[in-house]
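Final paragraph of the annual report: two paired records, presented back to back.
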Amino acid sequence: MKYGEVKNALYEVVKLYHPNAVIVWESEKGVEQKPPYLTLKAGNLSRELFPNDDGVDNGYHCSFLFEINLYTDGKKIKVGQGSYQENTAIDDLMEFILFLDSEPITDKLEGITVIPVNPVRDLSDILKSSKFKYRAMCEFTISFYEEANGLYQVSLSISNASGGGKEEFGTAEMPAIEQVEI
């Protein structure tokens, strides 16, 4: 599995739970959306120093921090003739975390481990743009296994979007020891 494939899988799960929200990667620049919306951020990729070589396949255990920010107007509460907006950002994000832990979603994310690493934080006070906009944020550690095959330890895809790779890199085989003198 590749970093980009993991990010796409995470995006799809967020979209599955929030079908009526705008969901953008934090690196995408643009106009601030009307709530509800979510921003996603994938941090730097870390991998183990040495590959796992179990004789069947080679690869590296990889991980990165994944951040979700949820922006919402909250829930309208009527009081007598008036009303106010209740901050539901933390509750709403906690519900999503429970959804992530459900069996159907862990099955959908097979090969990807998602672990919350910090408490769900209420960041509503740092927003200055609207009186009734609330924000909650949570970080997760995402872990997965990236395959590394063949002599050059690359994926079997021919090339990448940055112009790197050759077909021979993905298909080159490890040289075999044909005879041993004792």
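The closing record of the year follows.
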Amino acid sequence: MSYNLIIEGNGHTLTVENGTVGLHSEKSVVIKNLTIVMHPRANSIIMDKGGRLENVTAKIKGPARVLYPTILVNYGNLQMTNCHIMRIETKESTTVHATKCIFNDYYGGAFAISNDANLSMFMGQTAMTNCKIDCCKFLGNTTLSNCTIGVFNKNSGEMEMSNCMIEPTINQPVVNLKKEKAR
């Protein structure tokens, strides 16, 4: 789309099939109250000029062998409020402001893939407030305020954190551990 767009989802669900894009906008776009379920080899939203997401859920429907970003932001400002996003990617020329959002991955934070294929990538300026953060990689300048930091997060840029809580990780053992009987 090559013009500004406002989408009111009214709580509906959009399904995006493999090999397709749900929405590719060349201009700023506002999306509210929408759930997007995409197959792993698709993109739900590609934003060339940023925009605003309010009460948007973007998730991946498996099974998955390859994970494409649910949301790809190439340039501009992105404001997010009350969103739940699996696997977002923002380029270096973006500025992200997220408030009361949840960021996680397809695997539910159970493990990290060695090439970071399951991590959300924030490459530009990023500011998050009151967010739950799992499986994210920060490469630019990042400010986190009052956030809960979960599992498998990485930082390669400048990061400032204030009033954040680092959540303890409790992984169940893969094998069944039983205590031997006393002799």
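The CA atoms of residues 108 and 134 lie 9 Å apart. This concludes the annual technical report; the extension proposal builds directly on these records.
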